[in-house]
Model the fold of this input.
Amino acid sequence: MKFETLEFDVKDRIGVLTISRTQALNALNAQVLTELGLFFEELNSKIDLCCLIITGSGDKAFVAGADIKEMSAVDKNSGAEAAQKGQKVFQAIEDCPIPVIAAVNGFALGGGLELAMACDFIIASDLAKFGLPEVSLGLIPGYGGTQRLSRYIGKAKAKMIIATGDIYSAQKAKDWGLVAEVVEAGLLLEKCMAIAKSITKRSPLAVRLAKRAVTDGFELNQAEGLELEAELFGQAFSSEDKTEGVNAFIEKREPKFSGK
Ligand code: CAA
Done:
């Protein structure tokens, strides 16, 4: 599939998706959102990757939010529809069967932070900046920010970040648990590739089952989550990957997983 606002490369079963509107700090206009939706529709229906990295083009921004210049004509109804469209696209990212890493290389503001939080975890450059500044525009976060941020870092800190609209450093975001690791700007993609390579060495099937157990289990109570875990644990036992992984351990060799 050919996109105008997205670049996509694959190497060793690791995909790198770059949001590419450098001149607008990769702001999410209608076209980017539509293309992201189509990208994930295709990816989620036929997975042949082990891991996906999402980043922003240029060295200044991951994504500086939804496109503010498209907002002048938006009213109550079209505003709610725009939120639903963005939420649906970001839900498709959260539902992606393989791990999705947000490589945050600069500003991750508003819809940009919401995009990063729809990924499985965030690795940030030391120059990255985080915030939900929507209240400065007379708006609130609309692509999942009011819901995902509190789940990430707790209700009180989320309320402070949303109500102040302030912008925070990568280190602060890491202290709060929003960011998994902060790395020197020039090493960001290298670090994300190294993490992705670790993932590609493991059983693709087990990685997907584990992702489902954590993602789906997070919205359940503990007893229901444990039930889900037991069911997925059972599924792993019926896989060729489990036979290969256990045999490789016993035979003291590297496993060769098929993902089945
Ligand atoms: N939408 C549209 N264009 C944007 C943009 C956005 N969110 N963010 C930056 N741009 C554009 C600027 O308008 C500018 O374009 P021109 O050169 O044509 O004027 C270009 O990108 C470069 O930006 P700046 O000159 O502003 O760069 P800066 O270094 O001075 O400032 C910044 C960087 C602090 C990120 C600043 O651009 C900024 O505050 N951007 C807006 C951030 C924001 O409020 N995001 C939330 C949007 S609302 C939202 O996301 C709602 C939601 O929940 C879905």
